[in-house]
Every structure is written in structure tokens, then in C-alpha cells.
């Protein structure tokens, strides 16, 4: 039980309540001692006034009875600076200590009470006080300490017993309350985690927040959000695995088809037709890139991309090749392509992967403009900054929808057009991460979109 939260809380509650009772115990015992002594003074005062009323004409037996009733050994009255012995016993032991109860300090009362409890020796003490101030009498008594100490012990035991009962009862109430308000919800939270861990892909095992305590409710909300994200990620991973397997199968057959197409393209290069001679090299280059891509997909066999093969690349010719290929891909007469890359700009990158990134961005820009049915413009620029090489691809299309901006670079979530998979931007971002760079959406409004590619200058070393 001491290893559980509720058990430890129960033990700590009992300890703290007992400590609180100890701080109450000392003043209570001091107060009890003061009342005990004042009661003896009052009884002595009454006995002395009764004796004075009879002018001292009482028998020795009656005098002894008055002393026993007051539980004192003798009584002295002080009036007008005169001490008068009113009642006295036959034997009078030596007085061990004198206590004055006229306006005593609290700490003095507590000190004397604890000292009496700690001293088991039988002694005789003198007590001075004014039990009834209006009587104008100062009473001085001597009394044994044994009855006082026994009364203090009896009172202390009763206080401790009552404290123990209060502590246990309070602890049990707090135990039940904490168990109901905290331990049970925490246990429910742990059980929900364990159930979910057994089958994280099962959406029915996601916790439903029901906590009434604010902190626990926040924990349940956070766990629910985490479980939803994890379940979605697992489902997406499964879909990506299935897609990867399908792509590998398709790539295998596609490679064979492209090999045949390459042989045909090689023969086309021997044609004397000027148009064929101009187009054939681009066709061969495109087929070679497609074959290399399918072979890389088959060799890797996973969703990740192979590491880049860095080389010095002239950016402007690469951009011009991307633009020419995009012009041949569709009827893009209504779209103007502007290459604003400086002629001598060189950077270090994998030319094939960078070609894929730019092709994806330019194709997305063209499709966005074509979807509006109006003419448009695509600009590709490049420059070198203190941060690194920057390549920009901008268009005059309608901009990305909010859903695409919220899930940008996430496969199957960031599609900007109906029927798209959202894989293009995700692939671009992954390829650039392999270079140590990044792809950013710099701007997207109703008048156009601009993407920025940042490649670190450190790649040049």
C-alpha cells in the first residue's frame, strides 16, 4: 500500500495531522495545568474565607478536611503586605519551586507544564495567585506535585487518543476523496494507454476525455490528440508501404517499356528531319532520366530517397532544360516562362535530384495557372545570399487553398488540386533535406504563389 499513490497520501495525511496535533498539544497541556492550579487556589480561597467567617473556631478534623478538599498542604493569605497562615498541615516538606500565576507569559506556562511532565520526582511546590481579583486577597498555597502530574498525564493521553481518532478519520476521508477524484482518473488514463498500446492502429481505442479535474482533463485531451496523430501516421505509413510495393512493381515493368522506347529514340536520332533532330535528344534525355528513376526506385525499394551525388552544376542550363521539357509536356502556349537565373551561377547539388525538384515545382505552377483557364506567367530565379543559394519558382496562379497550406509537404494531405496526391511537394522537400537545404512557401495569395529553395553554401567546400 505504501507504494501506491493513495496509500502514500493516507500515510502522509496521518503524519501531518499528528504533527498539527502536537503543536496543539503543548498549549493545551499548559492551559490545563494553569486551570488545575487556579482551581486549587479557588478552593483554598473558599476554605480560607469560610475559616475567617468563623473567626478560626473550627476543629482540627474540619481544618484537615478543608485542606484535603482543596488538595493543598497549607493556605496563606496576603492582605495589606501581611502574610497570614490560615490553614496548615501537621507536616510541611520543603518547597521545591514557586510559581506565580498573576499574568504569566504563555511560553512560561508551556515550559513549566512540559517540565512537570518530564519530572517524575514527588515534590512540593508553592503557587501564588488571585483566583477572584475582586476579593482583594492574594492566595498562596503549597501542594504536592503527584496529583498534578497524574492529571497532566491523563489529560495528555486523552488529547493524544482524540488526535489519533481525528487523524485516522480525516485521513480516511481524504483517502476516499483522493482515490475518487485523482487515483481513479489516473488509473483510467493508464488503462487507456495500455489498451491503445496493444493496437495503436485501432481508432476505437483512442481515449475519450471525461475527466472533471482540469489538469487531468488536459492530460486526457493531450493523450487523445497524440493517439489520433499516431493512428493517422500508422495508417499513412501502411498506405505508403502499399504504395511503395505497387510503385516497385510498376517500376519493374516500366523500365522494360522505357528500354524499348529508348531504342526507338536512338533510331530517331538518325533521321534527317530537322524537327526530329531537334526533339530527339530531349526525348532521349527524358527517357534516360525515367529509366534512372525507375532503377533507383527498384534498388532502394523504400519510401526514402537515395543520398544525393553532389557535383558542380550550372543552374541556368538546368533551368532552361526543365522549362523546355515542361513546354513539351502540355499545350502551354498561354503560359510564359521567364528564366531569371544569372548566366554564370554555379552551385553544388545532385543535378538529377535538383532537376526533379524544379520539374515538380514548374509543373505544379503550370497546372495551377491552367486550372484558371487564363494566361499566366512562371518565373524561375536564382541568386546567392549570405544564407545560401536561393532558387525561386513563382507563378501568377490562384494561390494554394488553405487546406494545402496547412498540410504542406505531407503526402496525401497537401494536394493543391482535385485528384492530386500531394506527393510532389513531399518528394521535393525530402530531396532538398538530403542536400542539407529546405523548401519553403514564401508567398501564396489570390494573385500567385512563390516557392523558395535554399541550399547551404557549405556544400561548395
Automatic annotation (TrEMBL):
The protein's UniProt keywords, in alphabetical order, are: ATP-binding, Coiled coil, Kinase, Membrane, Nucleotide-binding, Phosphoprotein, Transferase, Transmembrane, Transmembrane helix, Two-component regulatory system
Concerning Gene3D superfamilies, the annotation shows: 1.10.287.130, Histidine kinase-like ATPase, C-terminal domain
Q: Nucleotide-binding as a keyword?
A: yes
- PROSITE patterns named among the record's database cross-references: HIS_KIN
**Domain (Histidine kinase): residue spans on this chain:** 249-459
Enzyme Commission no: 2.7.13.3
InterPro entries from the entry? HATPase_C_sf, HATPase_dom, His_kinase_dom, HisK_dim/P_dom, HisK_dim/P_sf, Sig_transdc_His_kin-like_C
Record field: transmembrane: 9-30, 155-178
Q: Is this entry keyworded Transmembrane helix?
A: yes
Q: Organism's domain of life?
A: Bacteria
Using the record for this protein, list the coiled-coil segments as residue ranges, or answer none: 216-243
Reaction it catalyzes:
ATP + protein L-histidine = ADP + protein N-phospho-L-histidine
Q: Which GO terms describe its molecular function?
A: ATP binding; phosphorelay sensor kinase activity
Name used for this protein in its record: histidine kinase
